[in-house]
Amino acid sequence: MFLLPIVLATVRVLFVPLIVGTDLNTDGTSILFESISVGALPLAVLSATLGLIAITSEYTDDSLAASLAAVPSRVMLIVAKTVPSIGLSAISTAAGTAVAGWMASITLTSRGYTVPGLDRSAELLISVVAGAACFAVLGVAFGALARSAVSAAIFFVGIILLMPSTLFYLGGSWVPRLAELLPASALQALTTRAPAEPFALEGTLASELEPFTGFVVLVSGAALLLVVAIAIFVRRSVHLEVSRKVRASRASRSTVGAAGAARGLSFAGVVRSEALKAFTLPSSRWLLALSAGAMVFLAWRWALARIPADILVSPITAWDLTSQTFDEQMTAIAGGLALSQFFIAAFGATIATSDFATGNIRPALAAVPLRGWMLAAKTGIAVTSAMAVGAIALLLAAIVATPIQQDQGFPATLSASIVWISIAKGTIALGLVAALGCGVGMIARSASGALFALATIFVVVSTLTSQMERITVDTPLVWLTNIGRVFPSGRDAAETLGPNTFQPWFQYGNILQLPPGASMVALFLWAAGSLAIAWVLFRRRGV
Fold first, then answer.
1. DSSP assignment of 134-180, as one string?
2. Calpha distance 78→414 (Å, rounded)
3. Where are the beta strands (DSSP E) in 296-403?
4. Angstrom distance (rounded) from CA 376 to CA 388
5. Which residues pair with 114 in a beta bridge?
6. 3-state class (DSSP) for residue 203
C-alpha cells in the first residue's frame, strides 16, 4: 500500500516531455492530479482486503469463541476490528500517496511545468485516503456478513469490481444512475479533480457525480453496510457456527482417513475422495450455479437489447446483416464468460484451498502421501466440473438467445457454425480458467488470498493497464500496457473472428491486441504455468 502509489505515479510522469522555449511553465495540474489519483482504486481494494482479513480470520475452530469470551460485546468486537483497519489503511495510503505526489511534483517542476499549490494537492490526497478508509469499512462489513473469507471475497469482488462493467454490458438507461451508487463509481468521483482525466473501471463510463457527492455516497454505503453487518452479527449464534465447523472438519478428516485406508494409494481412490470433498462444499455448488446463471442471463439480456437498425447503417445489405449476426451470436453465447470466468476461477481455488482452510491437509496427505496425485486429482475435478457445467450453460445460452435474436430481426439459427464453435471454445476456456484458479489456490494456500490474486489477474491489472494506455502510447513504457494484454481472459479466448476479418497484433502506438487464437494460447500458458509452480511449491513446502 505504500509502494504501489509511488510506482504508479512514477510511470505516469516518467516520460513527460521536457518543456523548452516559449512553452515554458506549461500547466502540469492534470498530470500531477492523475499521478495522485491513479492509485485510488488498487489502494481501495487493498484496504478492503485488510478489513476482510481482520474479521474473517476469527472464523476458525476456536478463535471467534475466544475473542467473544474476552470481548463479550459483539458490537465492540466489530468496532475493535474496524478502527485498526481504518487506521492502518489511512496511514499507509497517506504515506504512499504523499510521497508519490511529492515525487511527481518535483519531476514536473524540473521539466518546466507549473504545479498547483499544496492546498489543492492535499485536498486530492485526503480524498484518496478517505476512499481507502471507506473501503476498509466495506471489507469488514463484507467479512462479518459472509462469515467466510471465500464468500466475502467473492461478494466483494463481484459488487466492487465486476458489477459496474456488467451493468454497462447489459445496457439500458437505468444503468448510469445505478452504477453511480456503486462503491467503485463513487470512489472515482471522489478522487477526480479537473482538469485531470478520471480513472474508471474498464468497460464503464466516468461518473458524473461531484467529488463531495461521491464522498457522501461512499460514506453512506459503507456506514449502512457496517450497521447491517453489526445487526446480523449480534443476532447470529456464533458459538454454534464454530462448533458446526469443528464437527464438519472432524467428520471430513475421518472420511479422508477411511477412504485412504480402504482404497490405498490408487489414483482412482484419490479422485473419488477429492470429488467427495469438493462437492460437499456449499461454495462449490453456488459458484458453479452462479457461473451458469450468469452466462444464460447475459445471453438473454444481450439478445434482447440488440436490433439491426441500431447497429447497421441504412441501407442494410444481406452481407452486412449476415456478418453482424455472426458477431451477435458469438457475443450472446460467449459474452457471459466476462463475468462467469471469475466464478469458475474461484471454484478452482476453493477446491485447491479447502483442505488448508479446514485443517484436513495433514490427514489427507497421511492417506495420500503422493502430493502430485492430490494436485492432479483436485485439478481434474475442477476442470471436468467447470467444462461440464460450462458446456450445458453455453448450450442453454444459445437456445435462449437464438429465438430472441430471430424476433429482433437477425437471421440467427442454432445450426450456424459459430454457435457450436463458441460453445466448444467457451467450454475449453472455462476448463483452463478452472485450472488456473486451482493453481493459484494451491500456491496461495489461502482462499481469500487466492481470490484476491485472481481478482487482480482478471480485473485489476486489465483496468490499470487500460487506464495507462493513453499515458504510455508511443513511449518506451508501452510495454506496461502490453503486459496487461497478455493476462488471461476466458472471454477473449472464446471469441472467433468473422469471415474475411483480419486483426493485426499491434494497433496504433504499438498497443498489443491478441487475436482470439493467441488469447487461448495465453490462457493455456497461464494455467499450465500456475499448475507447474503449484506442483513445485506443494512438493517442497511443509504443512
1. HHHHHHHHHHHHH-SHHHHHHHHIIIIIIHHHHHHHH--TTHHHHHT
2. 54
3. none
4. 18
5. 27
6. coil
State the Cα–Cα distance between residues 200 and 191, nearest whole angstrom. 10
The predicted structure's pLDDT at residue 206 = 77
The per-residue pLDDT for range 196-222, each reduced to its tens digit, is 888 777 667 778 888 899 899 999 999
185 residue type, one letter = S
Q: Assess whether pLDDT exceeds 70 at residue 263.
A: no
- Element housing 476 (H / E): none
Closest of 507, 458, 463, 512 to residue 485, by C-alpha: 512
The two most distant CA atoms of the chain are separated, in Å, by 85
State the Cα–Cα distance between residues 382 and 341, nearest whole angstrom: 13
Q: Is the pTM of this model over 0.85?
A: no
Tens digits of per-residue pLDDT, 20-71? 665 556 788 888 998 898 888 888 888 988 888 888 777 655 577 777 777 7
Question: Strand pairing partners for 113?
Answer: 26
Contact yes or no for 438/533 (Cβ under 8 A): no
Query: Which distant-in-sequence residues (6+ apart) come within 8 Å of 268 by Cβ?
Result: none
Instruction: Give, to the nearest 10 degrees, the angle between helix 371-408 and helix 337-358.
Output: 160
| pLDDT single digits (tens) 373-420 | 888 888 999 999 999 999 999 999 999 999 998 888 888 888 888 899
Give Cβ neighbours of residue 521 (< 8 Å, ≥ 6 apart).
none
Neighbours of 309 (CB within 10 A): 10
Cα–Cα distances in angstroms (integers) from residue 175 to residues 22, 166, 431, in the given order = 46, 10, 32
Among residues 332, 341, 336, the alpha carbon closest in space to that of 418 is found at 332
Running DSSP on this structure, what letter comes out for residue 23?
A: G
Q: Can you read off the three cell numbers belonging to residue 517?
A: 487464437
